[in-house]
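# step 3/5: fold
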Amino acid sequence: MRTRSLRDVAISQNRDKLLHHKKTEANEKTIIVMGSKSCGKTNVIHQFIEKERGAVESASTFLLEYTYARQSGKSLVKDICHIWELGSNITFANLLDVVAKVKYNHPLSIVLMLDLTYPEIILNTVDVLLKAAKSALLKSLELQQNEVIKRIVVNAEEEDKPYLDPFPVQIAIIGAKYDLFQNMEPAKKRIICQYLRCLAHILQADLLFYSNNDTSLIKKTRDILLHYGFNISIPSSSIVTDYNKPLRIPAGFDSFRNIQGSPAGAINYSLDKYKNSLEAHFNQKTDKQERLPDDPASDLNFEEAAIDNLCQQKSEELKLLKKIIERK
């Protein structure tokens, strides 16, 4: 019988250690949710983590909020999904740098929500937030702006691949308020949908429409977040490209030819045509700018009972100290 060397014993122990860690360490993922103001970002997060309905109707997110979800996985420990929500509007897009300071050694995904009923701000929202998100990712990965980071294109048509520019991480574009959008004129719906389809195709993003008043759309949106957060397979669902229905197109399953809608003739491989059409029909404007309140501590969006009580106590102590000093 061959005697085991110290090297053999060390390799065996290290293998056992790795197997043990696989059984006891939680898998972690991060999702950043951002988008148009008051389009339902908080609702989507609460529905994802199955928070009570009453909490969904709370005050809108003002700046940047963090929460997390946990779910039992294959290991003994529950897997964790970290969720960051960029609230308010694009004014505070630079706060994504705060998220970037976390050095991620686990997958990160982006969810971009756009208000379908307010097409006048779609272009500006997309431009500012995607640029800020990409910059934040570069900082997180400690890369320079000239260093290219792209996802590998898998399902796209071969003729389309040279014209695609996949976003560095997994991304979903969600068109919100579909219940109101569906009543818009068909021609206008087509213009908005063509732009969003082309944008999603170029970025290789999942594209779907959402409404807080439609249980079917809520479930499909939650399925996407479960897939991003816990790698849970998305239930098979038919692809929807009809502009008169809520779009549902997984990343890589669209094509420039289908978006254009004409099987014959030259194919449009550029997003510019659809951007120009959107600008021509909807006068584009910058989302309303906001600023921090003069005293954030007195703002209801930052209400924290324990901290507020402590602040009040310290404030009273300071007043008392001032009186003592004045008497002396």
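# step 4/5: annotate
The radius of gyration is 24 Å.
# step 5/5: archive (pending)
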